[in-house]
Amino acid sequence: MSVRPLVAGNWKMNGTRSALKELGLMAEGYDAALRASVDLMICPPAPLVFLAAGAAIGTRIGIGAQDCHAEASGAFTGEVSAEMIADAGAGAVIVGHSERRQYFKETDAVVEAKARAAIRAGLAAIVCVGETREEREAGKTLGVVGRQVARSVPEGATPATVIVAYEPVWAIGTGLTPTTADIAEVHALIRKKLVGRHGKQAAGIRILYGGSVKPANAKELMAVPNVDGALVGGASLKAADFLAIAAAYR
Ligand code: PGA
Fold first, then answer.
1. For this structure, is 198 an active site residue?
2. Ligand 1, residues 94, 172, 176, 214: which to mutate, most atoms within 8 A of Cβ?
3. Which of 21, 69, 133, 246 has the greatest CB tally within 10 Å of its CB?
């Protein structure tokens, strides 16, 4: 099955309104040839989602959020629901990013509930998984990632509702990346788990690679089997870098 790739940018806790000019530059660089071959998405911090969604109208660049609460509304001071994110004009939300799992103690069960909330609200859930350095060194990568996929991806996942992002924790923001053989092994495992549980349509679920994706390595990483795009952190803050990564699909 041929899967249309997605290059998504995670701005993390970076950017004020002035950063939206980068979104404008991305839109200018997202020319017909790129549009024919790859989807683009930017996930800005929550206060910018509404403005970014407005700015992205007519550009075909998708807008996503970085996290959501599992409940639709209620007494959860400081939280943002998937319904609010959808209402702000976004089409997706990242759930279970390793920084959420690590700093905010999110478990697979919490991530799964957030992913279900995203789908309930009509958003695509970008479910992140990935092993720590200690887990990789102990030879536990496939076990850890397989378990995270089994427990964090909700029942009935489809290509429209779920995107999986494999992000080795030790590769995020470090300049380090796994070998292409290691990435291929993990992505093949994720594909097998998805198809085993969700049926053959799960062959169309996009599996992104994330962790130190840069213009210099994008072509090599995006050529790995079962890598259907990238989740980009640092290099998504500047339009020139982000477009250079997307250009791997030119
Ligand atoms: P990085 O982050 O590209 O800066 O390594 C990736 C991510 O955390 O999504």
1. no
2. 172
3. 246
In a domain, 170, yes or no: yes
Evaluate whether residue 174 is within a structural domain.
Answer: yes
**Ligand 1 atom, smallest distance to 174 CA:** 5
Q: How many folded domains does the chain comprise?
A: 1
pLDDT the model gives residue 2: 82
CA nearest ligand 1 atom 1, residue: 233
Chain CA centroid to CA 89, Å: 17
Residue 211 domain-assigned (yes or no): yes
Question: What pLDDT, on the 0 to 100 scale, is given for residue 1?
Answer: 63
Cα distance between residue 103 and residue 106, in whole Å: 8
Domain containing residue 219: CATH number:
3.20.20.70
What pLDDT does residue 164 have? 98
pLDDT tens digits, one per residue of 46-56: 999 999 999 99
Q: Which domain holds residue 217?
A: 135-229
Q: What are phi and psi of 171, to 5 degrees?
A: -100, -10
Stretches in the chain below the pLDDT threshold 70? 1
Whether residue 200 lies inside any domain: the answer is: yes
